[in-house]
Write a structure and sequence with these properties.
With 416 residues, the chain is mostly helical. It contains 24 helices and no strands. It has helices at 8-21, 26-40, 48-57, 61-66, 72-84, 88-95, 103-111, 115-123, 131-146, 152-158, 164-181, 184-192, 201-217, 221-232, 240-252, 258-270, 274-281, 288-300, 304-314, 320-336, 340-353, 360-374, 376-389, 396-409.
Length: 416
């Protein structure tokens, strides 16, 4: 976290960025209007109770219709609200009615894909070192980049900005240019001064990828793995992740020892990069751990017959943990294929034979839930076993609740 207190203009920009990224959430739309009307553009705010009524009804068009648009400030509020409800055409129409050029308008034009207009407006604001000037340079840079222009010199103008998020973004972009051109030392120079906490998620992915590439080229494969894992664990859908995945699979994986290779594969699995893992492992998975990951990838893709074939191979493994997981995998594959009775019996056999496996509580819960209607007494027996033997399992609270319902429904009043 950054402990320094941000200037008020930078705080407002942080706020506007947050609102713009989350505008589809109705709560944020509501707060957007409240904040814009009350302190960003200093309009007379609508009463709090009236705003709450608008929020409850979801009637955000009221905001647009209630303002006359007699001045630029009201037009901007209407335009922001139109954008928030997804009306791009109305947003652009309202922006065209402005008497003067506003940076808020440049931001909205950019969000609507009108990059030339956004860049034109931003260019008129590039003055001295005032916050509006830095914001204008930033808007010009991202608008020009969206149009495919070379923005290296524009980002250079932002490197020394006192606004941390602008400076961090500029340094990352300059590092990215130098990486593409093969200037390793210049890339390191710009990247070392970037604070990743100031970057948006997609830019943070690029940051960790570049950091990983520095470690990889220095022969520090474990360091590269650390950085790539950070990139892949960021919850954000972005094409830049494909670059990380491709390089990790094709170039980094062969250099890793068994332990670190498994860590990389596990990151792929937890992020559901099933196709990438299958392409990497299907012709070379001789290690049982890799085979297990491959089986769960096919399971994740709903290719249950292929997953079952691999689980069956592993069910005779000498490693007891792998053997237990494989037998569990065979049972859940059958369950997903619709062979429920057979699968549940397999899960109960698994639970008896491997009582120490961390998968047993889940197996018992699945079985108990299955028998609730067809055999409630057996369901009670299974849930009692789960709640008695595995009280620290995450399935315990739900199992206890269902057990209470079963007691009440089938005459076990004292127990319930």
């Amino acid at each position: 976290m950054i402990s320094r207190k941000l200037p008020i203009n930078e705080q407002r920009f942080h706020l506007c960025c947050l609102i713009q990224k989350l505008f589809l959430n109705h709560v944020v739309i509501f707060l957007t209007f409240l904040l814009l009307s009350s302190f960003v553009i200093n309009l007379e705010p609508i009463g709090a109770s009236q705003l709450f009524d608008i929020y409850k009804k979801g009637d955000f068009r009221y905001i647009i219709d209630s303002l006359s648009g007699k001045n630029d400030e009201e037009i901007l509020v209407k335009a922001r609200t139109a954008f928030a409800v997804g009306d791009r055409k109305l947003t652009i129409s309202l922006l065209s009615q402005l008497d003067e050029k506003h940076l808020q308008a440049a931001s909205l034009y950019y969000s609507c894909g009108e990059y030339i207009k956004a860049g034109e407006i931003a260019s008129t604001y590039i003055v001295n070192s005032a916050f509006s000037g830095w914001l204008a340079i930033y808007l010009k840079a991202i608008s020009s980049a969206a149009l495919g222009a070379n923005t290296y010199e524009i980002w250079q103008d932002l490197v020394d900005s006192p606004v941390g998020i602008f400076s961090a973004k500029a340094r990352l972009e300059l590092a990215r240019f130098n990486f593409q051109w093969g200037y390793q030392d210049s890339m390191i120079y710009y990247l070392e001064s970037v604070e990743p906490v100031l970057l948006e998620k997609r830019d943070r992915i690029s940051y960790y990828y570049l950091k990983g590439m520095i470690s990889y080229k220095a022969g520090n494969y474990q360091g590269a793995l650390r950085q790539f894992k950070k990139a892949l664990r960021i919850k954000y859908l972005y094409d830049g992740k494909k670059e990380v995945i491709a390089f990790s699979a094709d170039s980094l994986y062969p250099h890793l020892d068994k332990k670190n290779a498994f860590l990389l594969l596990d990151v792929f699995r937890e992020n559901r990069y099933y196709d990438e893992l299958i392409n990497l492992l299907k012709d070379s998975a001789v290690d049982d751990l890799a085979k297990m990951i491959l089986a769960w990838c096919y399971f994740g893709k709903k290719e249950y017959s292929t997953a079952s074939r691999i689980f069956k191979e592993l069910s005779i493994s000498e490693d007891e943990d792998l053997k237990a997981e494989a037998i569990y995998g065979l049972a859940v594959c059958d369950y997903r294929r619709g062979w429920r009775v057979k699968a549940v019996e397999k899960l109960l056999v698994f639970a008896r034979n491997f009582p120490d496996s961390p998968l047993v509580p889940k197996a018992l819960f699945t079985a108990g839930d299955f028998y609730q209607k067809s055999d409630p007494n057996r369901s009670i027996e299974i849930f009692e076993k789960l709640t008695t033997i595995y009280p620290h399992s995450k399935y315990y609270p739900r199992a206890l609740f269902l057990l209470g319902q079963l007691y009440a429904r089938h005459g076990h009043r004292q127990e319930s």
